[in-house]
Amino acid sequence: MAISQEAEPQEAVSKDAESKEAESKDAEPHSRHLNSPLLLTMLLVLAVAAQGPLRRVLAAPVTQSWMTVFVAVVVQALPFLVLGVLLSAVIAVFVPASFFARALPKRPALAVPAAGMAGVVLPGCECASVPVAGALVRRGVTPAAALAFLLSAPAINPIVLTATAVAFPGNPEMVLARFVASLLVACAMGWLWQRLGRGAWMRPPERPSYEGQSKGAAFWGSVRHDVMHAGGFLVVGAMAAATLKAVVPASWLNAAADNWIVAILALAVLAVLLSICSEADAFVAASLTQFSLTSRLAFLVVGPMIDLKLFAMQTATFGRAFALRFAPVTFALAILVSALVGTVLL
Fold first, then answer.
1. Where in this protein does the record put region Disordered (predicted)?
2. What is the dihedral of CA 146, 150, 151, 155, to 10 degrees?
């Protein structure tokens, strides 16, 4: 009896502790929810209190120059970005992957250039090209052809080429150079994979997230996803271009631009780091006037084929073993082909 009497208070204490813990867990979301307006209010108060220094900073010539370049890049690129997102959503949702399997030649050596040229008539940004390539492999298309499409579609589609022509109005040869270099890299990588690739390096792609949804829901889901991702990277790229133009000392940029090899490598690495959507990258490249057309061509060829977000998406779709082999070879080949094509055409 004494043992049972001692156990009853212990059970009551444990129940009280559990109820308090549950109440604290229930209260956590409310406290976080209440903190958001509080944080916004504090930021507004801080902005009002510091409006004097903020006005002086915004009125500075460097800030004015930075804002001018930033707004110009975003305003010029935004219409092409929106149009590209809409078209890529249409392709991802309404064009069946079996269409590609029927349209491509059976021989892999011929299927690679055919898939590369398919990027001209079936445009899509790099965010859409990775899942589309995964769908092609899943529907039986040879991986070499799917990879050629993955690399070419974001780089040579009509929207990207039109944006390049608008961004470089005085250099129409830039459009041809981008088309030729990008298509050569896409086909070469497809043939290399056909010759040297191993099935064990590529993980079978999973089913796309659009299955099980209505066409309308899948379309708007794709649009929202691509706008959030591509729009964010556009803002980051515009900020970086404005910073290079207005903040970084001109002597530094001139020193890098004066060396032909350093300029190409610098802009190729910059393309990987900025991860700008291909519909908008031409406007960022056009703002880097210190650099030669060949080095800016490397920026335009490398970016749609391999950058930080594409590496993550390729890893998620085809596996780490594939991405670790495919990405470095694509990067090196894109630089080499850009330098050769730029020397001939620019």
1. 1-32
2. 130
Give Cα 185 to chain centroid, integer Å: 18
Task: Answer yes or no: are the C-beta atoms of 57 and 255 closer than 8 Å.
Answer: no
Q: What is the pLDDT of residues 79-110, one digit of tens each?
A: 766 776 776 677 667 777 667 667 788 888 89
State the Cα–Cα distance between residues 258 and 309, nearest whole angstrom: 30
What is the amino acid identity at position 296? Answer: R
- Cβ atoms of 298 and 341 closer than 8 Å: no
Chain segment 2-54, per-residue pLDDT in tens: 445 544 555 544 555 555 554 454 444 444 444 556 676 777 777 677 767 76
Give the whole-angstrom CA distance, residue 16 versus residue 122.
Answer: 63
- Spatial distance between the Cα atoms of 23 and 8, rounded to a whole number of angstroms: 23
Judging by beta carbons within 10 Å of its beta carbon (0-12, 13-18, 19+), is residue 24 exposed, middle or buried? exposed
**DSSP line for 179-248:** HHHHHHHHHHHHHHHHHH--GGGSPPPPPPTTTTS-HHHHHHHHHHHHHHHHHHHHHHHHHHHHHHHHTS
Asked if residue 151 lies in contact with residue 136, where contact means CB atoms within 8 angstroms, the answer is: no
Kindly list the distances between the CA atom of residue 57 and the CA atoms of 50, 51, 54, 210, in Å, as whole numbers in the listed order: 11, 10, 5, 47
What would the DSSP string read from start to end of 189-202?
Answer: HHHHHHHH--GGGS
Contact between 148 and 190 under an 8 Å Cβ cutoff? The reply is yes
Query: Tokens 């150079």 appear where?
Result: 177
